[in-house]
Amino acid sequence: MKSNLFVFRVKGGLGSQMLAYATSYALKKKRKDAVVIADFNYFREKIENRWGHILTPQLKYVFNIDEHYLPAPLYKEMMRSISDKRNSECAKVHRAGDNFNFDSSIFEQEGFIIFTNNSWCSWEYFDEFQDDIKELYKFTSYKRKENIQLSRHILTTNSVGIHIRRNDFVSNGQSLCSIEYYKNAINKASSVVPDPHYLIVSDDKEWCRKFINPIIGDSPIFYTDNSGVDGFRDMQLLSECKAKIIANSSFSGWAAWLNHKWFTISPSNFSPDIENVQLSNMVYKKWITVE
Prior knowledge:
Blueprint: E1 4-9, H1 14-30, E2 34-39, H2 59-63, H3 72-83, E3 92-94, E4 112-115, H4 130-136, H5 145-156, E5 158-164, H6 167-172, H7 179-192, E6 196-202, H8 205-211, H9 213-216, E7 221-223, H10 232-240, E8 243-245, H11 250-258, E9 263-267, E10 288-290
Parallel strand pairs: 1-2, 1-4, 3-4, 5-6, 5-8, 6-7, 8-9, 9-10
Helix pairs in contact: 1-11, 10-11
């Protein structure tokens, strides 16, 4: 009989949910003496994120991954432990260090452990199981004609995908990748990719047309047009690009990690304006960094 119970509280947007679930999968593979549950009760609370949007579980819709919900008594005990900010009589709350980087101690816990991290910001948690994770996170076939045509173009040209995340980061005061970063990254990509075709994934297309299009110059440029429940298709399209220029976001980080082809250019620091937080583990070992 298994004597350990490990509960991952899945939170956040799609990228964060994928990180939490992948980390829980790795823990389940490593700890045969434990029951490991990725719990989705957080989304039943109808929580708004920092930008006023109701967060929803997305792994079932996107990847057909079953969502598990702890029974009410166990969930109540878990929430009491979290809200008291201390360990209860039967549950221990595990919180990662302030810098959010890889914490190997999660694989060494004993008892009833609640993992409460907002994000598991390191590929190192599950990199040894990457074949399994990539199988779990297989996208379904496109339905919209526009995505089918765009995917065909990506796969038959020297495609370079660029992710530019702005609107929610701007409203929250979160650090953005600078124009200088995109200029350096685009120049680097253009110097090694013959006849590049650029795919831009962004929540601020007007800004991109004003500031990014001139950097790209005469090379062909295409924009995605997915939103709402189909927003994940942008991750799928970006993952198909032969080269990628990602933002300081797990959304494009996943696109690069799931389907590494020619190369990925990444910012060296995912959260440069947050004191004592570097998120350096979000830069995967195969990626190229530019400032």
